[in-house]
Amino acid sequence: MSTFYKLVISGALRAQLGRRATPSLAQRLTGDRGGGNPTFCPSRTQSSGGGGGSGEKQFNVPPSAEFVARVSGIATMAKLPYRESAEGLDAAFVGVPIDTGTSNRPGARAESALLRAYNSGTRAAPYESLMVADIGDINVNLYDLKDTCRRNPERLPQDPPCRHQRRGAGGKIGHGNPFRRCVEEGPADCKRVVQIGLRGTGYSPDSYEWSRAQGFRVVQVEECWFKSLAPLMAEVRAQMGSGPVYLSFDIDALDPGFAPGTGTPEIAGLTPIQGVEIVRGCSADSPGGM
């Protein structure tokens, strides 16, 4: 079970994930007043429109590195403001700083992340329409995974190579079996579970037999080689239907040549382009969290 930031999203995201950047706000974020020469440092909080009226909704926006060094300040997600709770937010980042269940290389608990405000390829500008903040890390027990799960009100699944083992080295809680626990404990809708990029050696002739028996759609990595995953994601969206969706993207789905820091490197994985196709292909599913 690797460390990751969980993004908790409210219903407001469903209608606003596709919002595109507007030049006026982009100029306010970068400090560019039209002449190409930034003259002021942008605020950590930006309004939804010009004029400074009292009716404008305020949004938290990552500061531009032109004014704030990316390595300075409090290490919140995307350098967003820290909040004590998710009250009043449309989405919140929650840190889960534990990698005790990792069977190979731990260390992910020490990582942090920093995201910029815009994507130049998609023109997406989520911080223009969503109030987002970092609400800190959950409390964990580095010596007891079961106690960590009890302290966390939601179980947080992950999905590298397989993740449905019955037990691992005598323990039922670990990075190799969260989906099996989800099935046993009830929260998983097995007809709406898709696992993509599974690969590698296993402990039986068919490592994915149990997943298929539950109703999971298993897409082994060999089915992904040398092709775009956009058609596959169209099928996934149809399978998900209108119900809530939880997206779990584990870094070791990617080939370790692109992500060598993964705790469980396995060759012949997905490419970064395919990873982007998967994430973008989920946009119409209105994920409730990731």
Summarize the structure.
The chain is α/β, with parallel strands linked by helices and 290 residues long. It has seven helices and seven strands. Helix 5 links the parallel strand 6 (194-198) and strand 7 (217-220).
Please provide the count of β strands: 7
List unreliable stretches of 5+ residues.
1-5, 9-44, 155-163
Radius of gyration: 20 Å
Q: What distance separates the N and C termini? A: 15 Å
Report the portion of residues in β strands. Answer: 5-15%
Question: Helix count?
Answer: 7
Largest sheet: 3 strands, mixed
Describe the structure.
- Strands 1-4-5 form a three-stranded mixed sheet, with no helix packed on it.
- Helix 5 (209-214) links the parallel strand 6 (194-198) and strand 7 (217-220).
- The model is unreliable at 1-5, 9-44 and 155-163 (pLDDT under 50).
- The longest helix is centred in the last third of the chain and has 11 residues, at 230-240.
- The protein is built from seven helices and seven strands, in the order βααββββααβαβαα.
- Helix 6 (230-240) runs parallel beside helix 7 (272-281).
- It has helices spanning 13-16, 23-30, 145-151, 178-185, 209-214, 230-240, 272-281, and strands at residues 4-9, 45-47, 58-60, 91-96, 132-137, 194-198, 217-220.
- The protein starts with a strand and ends in a 9-residue tail after the last helix.
- It is an alpha/beta fold and 290 residues long.
